[in-house]
Each structure stands twice: as structure tokens, then as C-alpha cells.
Amino acid sequence: MLLEKYLRVGLKNEMQKYWSIFKISFEQEFAYRLNFILWRVRNVFQILLTYFLWSTVFASPTTQIFGYDRTKIITYVFGIMIVRALVLSARAMDVSSDVAQGDLSNYLLKPLSYFKYWFTRDISSKVLNLIFAAVEFAVLFIILKPPFFFQGSIVALLAFSVSIILAIFIYFFLLFLISSIPFWAPEIGWGSHFLVTVVIIEALSGSLFPINILPINLQSIVMATPFPYLIYFPVEVYLGNIGGSALLGGLMIAIAWTGVLWLALNFVWQKGLKVYQAIGR
Amino acid sequence: MVIGQKLALSVFLVGKVLRFVFFFGFLYFLLLGNSTLAGYTSNQIIFFFLTFNLIDVITQFLFREVYSFRPMIINGDFDLVLVKPISALFRVLMGGADVVDLITIPPLIFLTIYFGALLHPSVLSALYYLLLLANGFLIATAFHIIVLAFAIVTLEVDHTVMIYRDLTSLGRLPIEIYKQPLQAFLTYLVPVGIMISLPAKAMMGLVGIGGILVGFLVGAVALFIAFRFWNYALTKYSSASS
Amino acid sequence: MNRAIIVDNLVKNFEVAQKEPGLTGAFKSFFSPQKKQVHALRGVSFSIQPGELVGFIGPNGAGKTTTLKTLSGLLFPTSGFVEVLEHDPWTRKPEFLKQISLVMGQKNQLWWDLPAIETFELNRAIYEIPTRVYEENLRELVELLEVEKLLKTPVRKLSLGQRMRMELVAALLHKPKVLFLDEPTIGLDLVAQQKMRDFIYDYNRKYEATILLTSHNMDDLVNLARRVIVINEGRILFDGALEDLVAKFAKEKIIKATLSNENGIADIEKIGKVKKLAFPQVILSVPRAATAVAASELLQNFPVDDLTIEEIPIEDVIRKVFKSGLKK
Fold first, then answer.
1. Which of these, A184, B24, B84, C260, could form a disulfide with C303 (CB 3.0-4.6 Å)?
2. 0.80 exceeded by the pTM?
């Protein structure tokens, strides 16, 4: 029937659109090979500090603090490698310069959803980074021979997957929101990303330390923000450290943040586009 | 200064301060109570961290111009620098200082003195600390010179500087936490250990005259290599064309 | 559809933040920001038929680019009516966007580090161009613009002229019905400029695309646009055939001569109106019809080393147009 054919062709075109974006984004990263390799090297250095730090804290195999033992904390660190590649690999911070320098105009002229475009580019980056992270994971695993905890519970693994998906969306919306600042203040485009994306997220997402080493009242404050749901929460779910009602509660908060950020983004973006004066020639 | 610039600088300032506060807070909560790390007390660990920051912030303050080096080479401004009577190296190393850092340095010095005092160092230890701190600066300077020389030859600055920053940030904690051979690597080859850990350890009275001498030796060698490399790079310099 | 583009009483104002220098200025602008109103367009009206090739001419800041951006949906009107291909551009519907194209000189859509062909493939997918149609369009455009050999070269390695041609290919792959060109010849050398004009002319003829181009270079119009719209300070001063504009307002041409000695220099005013006399340079303006005669008289009676004949600068033409009031 005509409707069926229309839907089929339409769907095929949509798929092709995003596959094309995925491909070209992938190629672009290769064009900046050296840049990318060095990015991965830097990732490894950061992991090394975290790994050795915790290794030393838990030097004695019987140490048990903050609810971790040596195996679990090392698994946490290794888990961060993979979760970072999945969640924190993104290109969407480049939206900031698109807005600040007027390149956004090029995209407004095309029959393309700007959000979907960048989300596809993010996924492309995640795939590439995941491949490298997996290799680094394997290599470091062989060299350092860490104790690793393999999660067996299906429920935990399922919850882990859900939390990862939520984390990906939360990060995407956050990046886009910060990147909207140049609509009103182009001078602090990079500065605001430095402040939020680099400093705040690195600290509060669980990349450096598991959030539960903080005293309870501080913990509650941090867990009310979206940041720990990027890294800390998914890894903890994988480790089985969060279960039952706490798990459900955490997922609720993550879902709530996803919704709030999505609404905020739409609102801010609409306002921003109105203000946008296709600057530059 | 335009309001936009002021705003941008404030945002960066807040970011840098927060970064410090977060790591500091992390160390504090980690070592709450009388926990030790690699045999060091929490005050000592914090002192390592402060020493790192001191060297890091001051070198960044002095050598900010290094970050502008690549464009300088590409658009040919470096030629103008070379023909002037001031030492080219001095100009590209220290040509531009960042006002923002002037705000962060005094509190940092104060904190370092405060925590240093908590360690009850002897006069000799404090002296060793200052000497080795200076030595650490010299090594950092040598690093930056090498980065610049590398840039002349390969046009690559940003990445090498980032790698340098990543390596030195491993010095936020005493290098004892790193297993061999990484520890040896960090002590002798890329002397983060000599730059940062050694002065801090001296303050704690853990370093004898032998260690001081080794430290200075490494510093001297680093500077020597740096200057040789810089002069070599100048001979390889091909002026930028459009 | 009888009209491709309809603009009625379009007004566009910008608010620009005023930033005073100095510390006190910085404080002032933080607490009570001064905004200045810029009236980019003050009630512009015109309509364009499908297939027309129209030149939008005016000095910098006249409102040309603002008009193009409003017509392509990048800016929304402060007031007034705008319709392109029976769509409101601001709604940016996909069906609308698939039929238009805007090419701005300094804004590249090509991916900088990759070969141009990659961007073309991407556009093919974005505009949902069927493969066979895409390949045919690509072939035609590449031939017309002479860029076959450059398809696999990374864009950053191309010269400005080559890049502009690639940008055109990228912009035309989806065969837009309406093409907006903002300063298409800027930054190009004379040969490349002419080639660009030839291409635009051929494209308009062959595909009957409606083309609206802006320029502050009079030469872009002379052999290209039959119809010109002169705009200055947000208002249309003239809309009509190029011949009429020239005949009415650019009644004179400029002769610039370099003399080898000062003999008889006082008599030079017999040839034409002396605009500037600073030995060895002399600049005369002569009636258009009398240009050839004046030039030959100059050559015969004066020690001329070098001589050029030029059009009056567009700013002067527009000043004249403005002086004689608005003309529809």
C-alpha cells in the first residue's frame, strides 16, 4: 500500500541520514589521528593515577573501607575505564563553538534535526572510544593482573544497562545545555565547559573517587545532582553495591533528571535560537 | 578590560579553584581519621598535593606564553622575535603572564606554609625544601624549553604540553604509590618524582644530602639537555611561509 | 506558483550591546547594559518570479545579508511578511529547506579535514537525494565547475577559489529551486570572479533556478543580473532593469591617467571634470557616452603613461540614487 511504501522509504532515508553522519564523524576522528591517540594516552594516565592510588589505599588484601574491599575497588577503577568510554565520550561540546562562531547557521539551513545530528556524532565517538578502551582494558588487565569482580546477576546487569542508557542521555543534555550559553555570552563558551564538563563532572561523577567515601550528608547532596549518575551509579549497580529499593530510588532520580534536563534543553534552545543572530559573515 | 573578558576569566578562576577544592576535599575525606597512605599521614599527603600545586600554578603562570607558541610559529611572528635583541627563548617562554594566577598564588603559598608548619620541620629540612623546590622549577623550565624546541621542529605544541601536564599531575600524590617500573620512570626519566615528591619529602626530613645532590644533578642534566635541544631546534628552524 | 519570493514591508531590528572601554565601563555594562537598536531593514518590499536572476546591490551594512538570512529562515522578521516558495521561512520546514540553498562566502559547510566528496555524500543523505539523481547532479556540477580532480583532496588543502567551487557543488547537489548567494565573488581573483559569474548565469539558464545574489561589486551585475535591487541603510532605492539604473544614475565613467610630465596639465579640464589632480595621477569623470572620445583625446594631447577606465564606485552611484529619492 502507498502508506506502507511511504513509511518504508521514509525510514530507509532516515536511517541513511544518520548512518552517513555516523560515518563522516568517524572519519573525522581519524583525520585527527594524533589528537585522538594522545587523547587515549591521557585517558590511560588518568586511570593510572586512580588505579595506583586505590591500590595503595587497599594495599593490604583485608582492608575494608567505605564498603569496598580490594577486589571491588579495583573493579570499580577498571569499570570506570569502560563506563567513561561509553558515557563521557562525546562530541556535543563542540556545539558551543558552533553557536559562538555562527556555524550553527549551516545546520539551520538543512532539513536535519540538530539534536539528532549531534547525538549520532556522540554515538560515533562512543563506538570509537569503546574500541580503544576495550583494548586498553585488556592490556592493562594483562599487565597489572588486578582482581576483578564479574557480575553474575541478570537483574544487576539489566539495571546496569538501563543506568548506562540514562547516563548517556543525561550527559548529552548537560553538554547541550552548557553549549547553549554562547547564545547569550559567547565569551564564556569554553570557560563554562571547563567549569562544568571538565572540573565539576570529573569530580562529582565518580571518576576520581566513589561518592560514598564522603560523609552521609555530603553524599545525599551529591546524589541529588545528575553528575554521579554518569559514572558512579552505573558502576555501583554493576558491582551489586546498590540493590533493592536503593536501586529503584536511584533509577527514579536518574530518570527524573533525564526528563528535567530534556525539558530544560528544549526551553533554553528555543529561547536561544530566537536570540541567535547568525553572527559572523 | 571588556566585561566579556572579565566574565571569561572569572569562570576560569572559579573552575581552577573548584578543581583544587575538590581534590583537596577528596584527600581530606579519604584520609579522615588517622589513616595513612603509603606510610604518610594525611597532613603529609596534603603537603605533597600542595607542593604539586605550587610548582604547577607558578610554572603555568610564568610560562603561559608557551601555549601561544604554535600560532606564533605558524603565522611567522616568531621571526620577529628572533631578530630582536632580547633572548628569543626568554621571550617565548615568559612573554605573557596570566593575571588570574596572581589571585590563586598567594592563598596557595599561605596554605603550603600552614601545612608545612604542621609537619614541624627542622630549619635544615625547610631549607632543603626551598632548595629542592627551586630545583623543581628548574626542571619544569627545562621541560617547557624542550616543549618549545619540539614545537619548532614538529609544529606540535598542544599535545606535548598536555602530556607533560598529565605526567606531572601524577605527582599530586607521592610517587611511592606507583609500582615499578613506573616509579623509576617517574623518578629519573620524566623526573616528576624529583620535581615534586623530593622537595616534599625533604620537608619531612626524609632526604639526606645524597638525595639533594641527586636532585640537583638531575636538574642540571635536564637544563643542559633542554638548552642543547633548543639550540639544535633553532638551526632546524625554517621560517614560516604562507 | 506565480511568485517564488514575496517580501512585504519587512522590518528587521537588531539589539546590539554597547560595551564601553575601561573598568567603569565594564561595571556599567554589567549592571545596566546599554542596548543600541540597529535598524537593519526598514520596510523592504519586493517580489521575485521563479527563474529570475536578481542582483541585490548595496554598500556594506546596507541590509543585503540580513535580507538573505531572513529569506532562508535564519532570522525572523521584526515585522512584515515574508514568503518563499509558499512557505514561511522561519518555520524551517524540511520540505522548504530541501528546495533552497544559501551560500555565504566565509561560511564553509565542507568538512575541513576530509575530501569534499565526503561532505557531498553526507548531503546526499541529509537531503534524501536518490542515488541515481545524486550521481547525475554530481557529475554535471563537477564538470561545470571543473573540479573532477579535486574531489578526493582534503578541503583544507584547496585554494580559496577551489574551495568556493566545492561549496557550490555541495550547495547545489539537491537542485534547489531558490539559490541565495551572498557575495559570491568576494576574495576571488579577477579570472575566478568571471568564472563564477559565468557559472551563475549558466546555472540560472539551464535549471531555471531562482537566484538572488548580493554584492557590493558593480561588476557582478554588469553582465549577470538583468534586474537589480539597490539597497542602502535598510531601504530599497531602486528595483528594476540594470540598464535603467545605469542610464539613470551612473551617467558618468571615471578615467584615471598617469602622466609622465606636467606639460599643459592645466588644460586637462577640457577633457572632463577633474575629480583629483595630484601629479602624476589625474582622475577625470566624463559622461558615459563620451568616454571613448575623451580617452582618445587624452591620449592624443597629453603625455599619458597609463590609463584606465572605470565605473563610478557603487557608493557614489547609490549616493546619487539616494539623492534623487526612492524609486519603485
1. C260
2. yes
